[in-house]
């Protein structure tokens, strides 16, 4: 199998994923998954589509990640891995879609408005 690539985004994070046959090694920005995401919860989020399809030990995954925080980065990686798995085997899409991994989460930070301290917050009102 040749290398399959896909892209995933979440908030300000962008993940480019390259999937090839292997033995389950996940490398993020030239670092191991356990090293890049020390939190077991974030590691679980990244591995969710692989565990759902029982192909955790089947592919080697290389990820280029930039932007955002650790939660956004982990969810961007999950989306990218899901898209790559669908490219490899389109019959897996219904199973992944049922879990909600195929949908790109569009929520992002709202921009700051002029004349206000934040996007919706207003300065304290003074009557006198």
Commentary on this structure:
The structure is a single chain. By secondary structure, the protein is an alpha+beta fold. Helix content is 34%, strand content 23%. The protein contains four helices and five strands, in the order ββββααβαα. The chain has a five-stranded mixed sheet. The longest helix is centred in the middle third of the chain and has 19 residues, at 70-88. The chain is elongated and about 70 Å long. The termini are far apart. The mean pLDDT is 93.
In short:
This protein is of the alpha+beta class and 128 residues long. Helices cover 34% and strands 23% of the residues.
> Which H/E pattern describes the elements?
EEEEHHEHH
- DSSP strand content: 15-25%
Q: Structural class, from secondary structure content?
A: alpha+beta
Number of helices: 4
User: Percentage of helical residues?
Assistant: 25-40%
Strand order of the largest sheet: 1-2-5-3-4
Shape: elongated
Give the number of DSSP strands.
5
Low-confidence stretches: none
Rounded radius of gyration (Å): 18 Å
Q: How far apart are the first and last residues' alpha carbons, in Å?
A: 73 Å
What is the overall pLDDT average? 93
Please give the largest β-sheet: 5 strands, mixed
Topology:
Layout (H helix, E strand, L loop, with lengths): L3 E7 L2 E9 L4 E3 L2 E2 H4 L3 H13 L6 E8 L3 H19 L4 H7 L29
Parallel strand pairs: 3-5
Antiparallel strand pairs: 1-2, 2-5, 3-4
Helix pairs in contact: 2-3
